């Protein structure tokens, strides 16, 4: 034990091995929310899965734009090009959102995440904000690439420029991507399991759409609660007050409710 | 400083922790010893605020872990070296931690160097890491925020003997700087060399705790005498537990002084008298945990 006593009595700085103590006092305030959101954003893209998903989306968009440029001499309206860039994002980006949440459980990184920031609702909101950030960048990219491709078709393929978009189509394209992402994040928080969340995200709304079309009793409910249907008017033109209300109701059911329940659940779940 | 105060954790009818109380003090390495499934990990998870206690409280640096501001700058945790994203590189894991805790990125390289992960290794994805490499990465992650308290769950698992010795030195240094270290192990001889204090848990209950030296000394006495049977009878009359050793002599659950006095009283000449060795503590550990795990099953 005498050796221990000698070590303990030695001056603090003489201890080898350990790095120098960090200068300054220890923080008395928590991790700023934006820093947390920034880290969550980085976590979405720094894994092999995340990176390949983004590369995959880029490849699908490139393929779709190539087809449009080659087909009929590129003679398509801007709306078509926009759809070609938006659709792959709307379909595949939600998987990025799902993985951002479920990988914390499947890869068990929640252990680290929730010990570095024990205020779990903040982590959940940071993930939601990061997903939104990805979505906004995706929408802007979709517009930029769609416009560039259409411009290229006009300039180099001699296509007629047709830049007309329905008044709410921009909103529709953005909503399509952003609401899909939020819905996916909500489902992922509720289920915390990658296959379950992916299947639920893709199958449930489609199944509900089918029920709404095939079962007469469910028709009125579907008009208000089928997100696929309530979003349609956004792409074609202006919405009536009732259509806005229907859109709002369906967003509440498919996006806000899963998110709220998911965040509540994450706060309580035991992290294994 | 870690204080666990009368913590009980129940899962349905199963009691994982039963009225557990212990302390880990600054400037000391506290070894948390117990067989697999004894409750070590559960207790550490309660300390880290990951598992809510059914009753009782656990505090780190005087407050519940969850209320620590930027906890990574106060407490370094390594609860499970395998709980890292397989598709992320080791360096990226540390970089994420550095950004979140607000530590300069330069420290990532310093720590990679400290735990002996080469730049090439640090840029590989964790799915390709051995358990030893994951432990080293975990130790680097725990030290990232220059914490005052370290909580490490079985950090020696997967480390080679040189790695274990290196880690021991590291923890001793950390404690010498005034830090608090709580580390768990299911291997007594792995922990007794580094721990100043021991907390022994079995079946969800603390079965022994105190300075390692004391627990070692209190692990009994080996005695051989001119008349072992007579000495055994005398000791038994004092309600001291006596176990005959096959090779001759007795293992007595009392300190050498008491045994010597008993021999004097019995008029028996001593041939050998010494305090319990490592094996004695190991037996105590085995007995304590075995008996309490039987109780655990019966309950």
Protein traits:
heterodimer, A: 272 residues, mainly alpha, globular, disordered N terminus, B: 299 residues, Rossmann fold, Alpha-Beta Plaits, 2 domains, six-stranded mixed beta sheet, four-stranded antiparallel beta sheet, 11 helices, 13 strands, disordered C terminus
> How many strands, which pairing sense, and closed or not: the largest β-sheet of chain B?
6 strands, mixed
Helix content of chain A: over 70%
Greatest interface and its participating residue counts: A-B, 44 and 56 residues
Task: Give the end-to-end Cα distance of chain A, rounded to a whole number of Å.
Answer: 38 Å
- Discrete helix count of chain A: 11
Classify the helix fraction of chain B into a percent range.
25-40%
CATH level 1 class label of the largest domain in chain B: Alpha Beta
Q: Strand-and-helix sequence of chain B, N→C?
A: EEEHEEHHHHEHEHEEHEHEEHEH
Order of helices and strands of chain A: HHHHHHHHHHH
Low-confidence stretches of chain B: 295-299
What is the overall shape of chain B?
Answer: elongated
Quaternary class:
heterodimer
CATH architecture of the largest domain in chain B: 3-Layer(aba) Sandwich
- Total number of domains of chain B: 2
- Percent of residues in β-strands of chain A: under 5%
Q: What is shown here, in short?
A:
Chain A has helices at 2-9, 33-45, 48-70, 78-106, 110-116, 120-157, 169-191, 194-214, 219-225, 227-236, 241-268.
Describe this structure in words.
The complex is a heterodimer of chains A (272) and B (299). Chain A is globular. Chain A has one domain (31-268). Residues 1-16 of chain A have low confidence and may be disordered. The longest helix of chain A has 38 residues, at 120-157. In chain A, helix 6 (120-157) packs across helix 11 (241-268) and helix 10 (227-236) crosses helix 11 (241-268). By secondary structure, chain A is mainly α. Chain A has helices at residues 2-9, 33-45, 48-70, 78-106, 110-116, 120-157, 169-191, 194-214, 219-225, 227-236, 241-268. Chain B is built from eleven helices and 13 strands. In chain B, the strands form three sheets. A six-stranded mixed sheet of chain B has the order 5-6-7-3-8-9, with helices on both faces. Chain B has a four-stranded antiparallel sheet with strand order 11-12-10-13, covered by helices on one side. Chain B has a three-stranded antiparallel sheet with strand order 2-1-4. Residues 295-299 of chain B have low confidence and may be disordered. Chain B has helices at residues 40-47, 90-101, 106-115, 119-122, 131-143, 161-176, 188-191, 212-217, 228-237, 256-266, 278-298, and strands at 2-11, 14-24, 29-33, 55-60, 75-78, 149-153, 180-185, 197-202, 205-211, 221-225, 242-244, 250-252, 270-275. Chain B has two domains: 2-209, Rossmann fold, CATH 3.40.50; 216-298, Alpha-Beta Plaits. Chain B is of the alpha/beta class and 299 residues long. Helix content of chain B is 38%, strand content 26%. Chains A and B meet through helix 1, helix 2, helix 3 and helix 5 of A and helix 2, helix 3 and helix 6 of B.
């Amino acid at each position: 034990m005498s050796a221990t006593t000698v070590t303990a009595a030695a001056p603090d700085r003489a201890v080898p091995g350990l790095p120098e103590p960090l200068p300054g006092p220890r923080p008395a305030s928590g991790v700023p929310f934006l820093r947390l959101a920034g880290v969550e954003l980085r976590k979405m893209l720094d894994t092999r899965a995340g990176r390949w998903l983004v590369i995959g989306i880029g490849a699908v968009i490139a393929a779709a734009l190539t087809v449009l440029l080659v087909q009929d001499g590129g003679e398509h309206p801007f709306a078509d090009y926009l759809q070609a860039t938006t659709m792959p994002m709307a379909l595949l980006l939600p998987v990025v959102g799902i993985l951002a949440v479920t990988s914390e459980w499947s890869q068990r990184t929640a252990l680290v995440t929730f010990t570095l920031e024990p205020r779990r609702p903040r982590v959940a909101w940071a993930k939601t904000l990061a997903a939104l950030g990805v979505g906004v960048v995706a929408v802007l990219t979709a517009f930029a690439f769609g416009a560039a491709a259409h411009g290229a078709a006009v300039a180099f393929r001699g296509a007629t420029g047709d830049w007309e978009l329905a008044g709410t189509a921009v909103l529709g394209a953005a909503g399509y991507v952003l609401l899909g992402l939020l819905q996916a994040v909500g489902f992922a928080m509720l289920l915390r399991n990658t296959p379950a969340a992916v299947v639920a995200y893709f199958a449930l709304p489609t199944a509900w759409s089918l029920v709404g079309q095939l079962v007469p009793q469910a028709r009125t409910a579907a008009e208000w609660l089928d997100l696929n249907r309530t979003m349609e008017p956004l792409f074609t033109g202006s919405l009536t007050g009732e259509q806005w209300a229907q859109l709002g109701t369906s967003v509440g059911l498919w996006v806000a409710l899963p998110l709220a329940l998911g965040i509540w659940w994450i706060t309580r779940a035991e992290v294994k | 400083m870690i204080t666990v105060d009368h913590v009980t954790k129940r899962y349905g009818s199963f009691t994982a922790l039963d009225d557990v109380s212990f302390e880990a003090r600054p400037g000391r390495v506290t070894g948390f010893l117990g067989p697999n499934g004894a409750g070590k990990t559960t207790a550490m998870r309660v300390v880290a605020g990951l598992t809510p206690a059914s009753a009782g409280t656990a505090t780190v640096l005087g407050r519940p872990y969850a209320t620590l501001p930027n906890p990574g700058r106060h407490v370094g945790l390594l609860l499970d070296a395998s709980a890292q994203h397989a598709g992320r590189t080791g360096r990226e894991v540390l970089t994420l931690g550095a950004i979140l805790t607000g530590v300069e990125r330069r420290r990532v390289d310093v720590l990679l160097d400290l735990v002996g992960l080469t730049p090439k290794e640090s840029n590989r994805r964790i799915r390709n890491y051995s358990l030893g490499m994951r432990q080293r990465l975990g130790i680097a992650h725990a030290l990232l925020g220059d914490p005052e308290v370290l909580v490490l769950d079985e950090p020696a698992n997967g480390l080679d003997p040189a790695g274990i010795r290196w880690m021991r030195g590291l923890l001793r240094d950390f404690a010498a700087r005034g830090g608090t270290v709580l580390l768990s192990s299911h291997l007594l001889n792995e922990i007794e060399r580094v721990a100043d204090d021991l907390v022994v848990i079995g079946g969800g209950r603390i079965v022994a705790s105190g300075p390692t030296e004391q627990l070692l000394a209190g692990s009994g006495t080996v005695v051989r005498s001119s008349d072992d049977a007579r000495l055994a009878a005398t000791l038994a009359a004092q309600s001291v537990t006596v176990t005959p050793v096959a090779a001759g002599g007795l293992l007595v659950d009392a300190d050498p002084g008491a045994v010597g006095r008993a021999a004097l009283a019995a008029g028996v000449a001593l041939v050998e008298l010494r305090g319990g060795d490592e094996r004695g503590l190991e037996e105590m550990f085995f007995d304590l945990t075995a008996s309490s795990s039987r109780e655990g099953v019966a309950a």
